[in-house]
């Protein structure tokens, strides 16, 4: 694990200050773009340049299955993950259509689907063909969790090597809002009632089963927040592990990443706990409707520009924010200045 985080440098705060100065010189109200302006400044720091260009980007979608579905925590069975994998390859899912609008290629990666999809376009290596039921014991061995983390790291590094200057990760795996809720309880110190939501859609009885499954998983496995990899192995899954590695890989390559929803955020928090400097490369996209989302964003120290009640996953939130970031970058790069307009610049008034 140490080898994956040793090369992460702190973002360049001088570039962030230079980006803020350029915004302040633009002929518009100071801080007029709000969080979007702050995000462009974060991009400058992460990229290590005041010349922000995020046109080369990529969405990686990690696919994995979770044994906890045996507890009736989802409307769907594990066979749906393989169906969606094929739909991703056909570029016909919601995330693919949104990615097309955002000019982002989509790369599906199998890190642990129960049913293998044999297609040369599907990347990755599965740590295991579906995890074990976390209500009966750990989801993964520590070695399997580390394997999935490394697969995510490799995916980010490959995208960066191909020229990507902005990355995003999504996931698809039936049952993963349950594992996310369990990890949120461990890392953020919240109770199952505060972490568990309806996911892809549960009635009251299903929601109660899900809460009980999360509570049981914590009782059976007794995961420790200080041992992040151990916690992922105990109550997480291959998709979360891979996304954690993806965020570490992006930071190691000096490439910023846009987070997605609650599953993405718990993976990002894992990455931050393993390597605090990795947080400087992260941007929030939206506040998921899942209960743990705001808590996780607070733990990450991030604020999201979009609060649209989304709870879809697959990277859709990240794709939704990209056009907003593109627009903010255009303002940053090309807005006329106060000086060019012959206007007095705005001043910060107390």
Model description:
The structure is a single chain. By secondary structure, the protein is an alpha/beta fold. It has a single domain (54-333), classed as Nicotinate-nucleotide-dimethylbenzimidazole phosphoribosyltransferase (CobT), large domain (Rossmann fold). It is 49% helix and 7% strand. The chain has 15 helices and five strands. The protein has helices at 2-5, 13-25, 35-47, 79-89, 94-101, 142-161, 176-188, 192-195, 204-221, 228-235, 238-252, 262-274, 293-300, 316-334, 338-341, and strands at residues 57-64, 106-112, 166-172, 257-258, 282-283. The protein has a five-stranded parallel beta sheet with strand order 2-1-3-4-5, with helices on both faces. Strand 4, helix 12 (262-274) and strand 5 (282-283) form a beta-alpha-beta unit. Helix 7 (176-188) crosses helix 9 (204-221). The longest helix has 20 residues, at 142-161. The radius of gyration is 20 Å and the shape is globular. The termini are far apart. GO terms for molecular function: nicotinate-nucleotide-dimethylbenzimidazole phosphoribosyltransferase activity. This is Nicotinate-nucleotide--dimethylbenzimidazole phosphoribosyltransferase. InterPro entries: Nict_dMeBzImd_PRibTrfase (IPR003200), Nict_dMeBzImd_PRibTrfase_N (IPR023195), Nict_dMeBzImd_PRibTrfase_sf (IPR036087). It comes from Collinsella tanakaei. Pathway: Nucleoside biosynthesis; alpha-ribazole biosynthesis; alpha-ribazole from 5,6-dimethylbenzimidazole: step 1/2.
